[in-house]
Amino acid sequence: MKKPADEEKGKKLFGFSRNIFFTGLTSFLTDTSVKMVYSVMPMFLLSIGASKTSIALIEGIAESTASFIKAVSGFWSDRIGKNKPFMLVGYGLSALIIPLYALVISPFQVLVLRFIERFGKGIRTAPRDSLIAGSIEKGDSGRSFGLQKAMDNSGAIVGPLIAFLMLSALPGNYSLIFLAAGIPALLAIAVIVFGIKEAGKQKHELFRKFHFRDFPGKYWFFLAIVFIFTLGNSTDALLLVKANEIGLNVAFIPLVFLLTNFVSVIASIPVGSLADKKGKEKVLIVGFLIYALVYFGFGFTDKKASIVALFALYGLYSAATDGIQKAFISDIIDKNKKGTGLGIYNALLGLTLLPASFIGGILYDRVNSSVPFYFGAITASVSAILMLLFLLRFRKAR
User: Fold this and answer.
1) At what angle do helices 338-362 and 68-80 cross, to 10 degrees?
2) Tally of CB atoms within 10 A around 331
3) Phi/psi of residue 248, each to 5°?
4) Which neighbouring-strand residues pair with 16?
5) Does residue 206 sit within a domain?
6) Which helix (H) or strand (E) holds 139?
7) How many structural domains are present in the chain?
8) Which domain CATH number covers 134?
9) Which of helix, strand or coil describes residue 282?
10) In angstroms, what CA-CA distances link 109 with 209, 329, 334?
11) How far apart are CA 232 and CA 398, in angstroms?
12) 212 partner at 20 to 30 Å CA-CA among 109, 186, 222, 272?
């Protein structure tokens, strides 16, 4: 008798299993909503009196203080063998919170709402990734997570584009953008309810008790590399602030964010397929080096054309790392531990964002606008070297 996950794998939509496609559609709608808000949030915060350090810390605190729930929800979903309930609660919180930004009058209120909205992301992220991993056909993890990344970034194109059009027509009317952003978030809930099927597990497959030794050494080594890289990967809000300071008009700031995501959409599935064929470690090394180049460029240049080109290159970095890291983790851990393993990974990213954003914001405000980007370039270069050592070490082990 076929299990639900096996049945779903047999149903194809545009060459992907039903679950993978509809999970991607959910991400597209939610990212449209979130990026409508996120693409204008730095400028909105500046308009209500926030400093650059405050902007960085709001992002860092919101991500980090909710990050522990990513590991908890991943383990819990493995323990009960269900993912969909976590997705409904997590995406539902985003749909509820996003329109409330229209009522904000202080940076502290933004922090509270960002915390709750990111808490929802913490609930949904690992179970969603686990559902994707459980719906993947063998040897197709890079391509499948590539679709997820492409759909994420498609929403991140549509969202800033809508924000740009609204700001162009009604300059400074951030509240209307926040209210409109609630619509696609609500549509995402409908997709989860009617489109996604639970990738259930048998009782003997459930992961009942956590032990560090249940995960291979290369998993922990890889997480150490991710930690070092993320320490220099402060909030993207600083990239948008730098673009504005160099001279890009506020209304055009969402468009450079759109450019990054457009490149990532085009590249994510081909890069994911390449990673499946040539090795995910090799693609990650290239991704880290691209990041180092981009951040060095942000620190060095003061030309608008160069900044626009760097935002485009930043999209290629995104395609070569975000989904590939998840696919790589999915490949190296056991089936019944994927939610937990991906949850720990996602929690690490969020927790490291707090010191990363604090370092980035302080360097930006207290030293100069170039130093945080040079710092990010250094940590990315170190991560590329460590990933090369990882490749050599575990290639020999095989």
Assistant:
1) 170
2) 16
3) -70, 130
4) 13
5) no
6) none
7) 1
8) 1.20.1250.20
9) helix
10) 38, 36, 42
11) 32
12) 272
Instruction: Please report whether residue 303 resides in a domain.
Output: yes
Q: Token pair for residue 126?
A: 């690992």
- What is residue 211's predicted lDDT score, i.e. its pLDDT? 64
196: region left, alpha or beta (phi > 0 left; psi from -120 to 50 alpha): beta
Rounded to whole angstroms, how far apart are CA atoms 338 and 326?
A: 10
Asked whether the beta carbons of 23 and 131 are under 8 A apart, the reply is yes
What are the backbone angles phi and psi of residue 2, rounded to the nearest 5°? -75, 140
Question: What's the token pair of residue 88?
Answer: 């409904």
CA 270 and chain centroid, separation? 19
C-beta of residue 120 within 8 angstroms of C-beta of residue 97: yes
Is 5 within the bounds of a domain? Answer: no
pLDDT score recorded for residue 210:
62
Indicate the pLDDT class of residue 65, thresholds 50, 70 and 90. low
pLDDT in tens, 352-393: 877 888 888 888 888 887 899 999 999 999 999 999 999 988
**Strand runs (DSSP E) across the chain, as ranges?**
12-13, 16-17
- The pair of structure tokens assigned to 160 is 């800033």
What are the backbone angles phi and psi of residue 317, rounded to the nearest 5°?
Answer: -60, -45
Characterize 296-316 residue by residue with b for buried, 16 or more Cβ atoms within 10 angstroms of its Cβ, and e for exposed: bbbbebeeeeebeebbebbbb
* End-to-end Cα distance, the chain: 35
Q: Which token pair is 113? A: 């709402």
Residue 31 belongs to a domain? yes
Which residue, among 50, 53, 125, 46, has the nearest Cα to 83 in the 3D structure? 125
Per-residue model confidence (pLDDT) at position 204: 46
Residue range of the domain that includes 271 = 17-200+212-397
Q: What are phi and psi of 12, to 5 degrees?
A: -110, 140
Q: Cα–Cα distance between 287 and 282 in angstroms, integer? A: 9
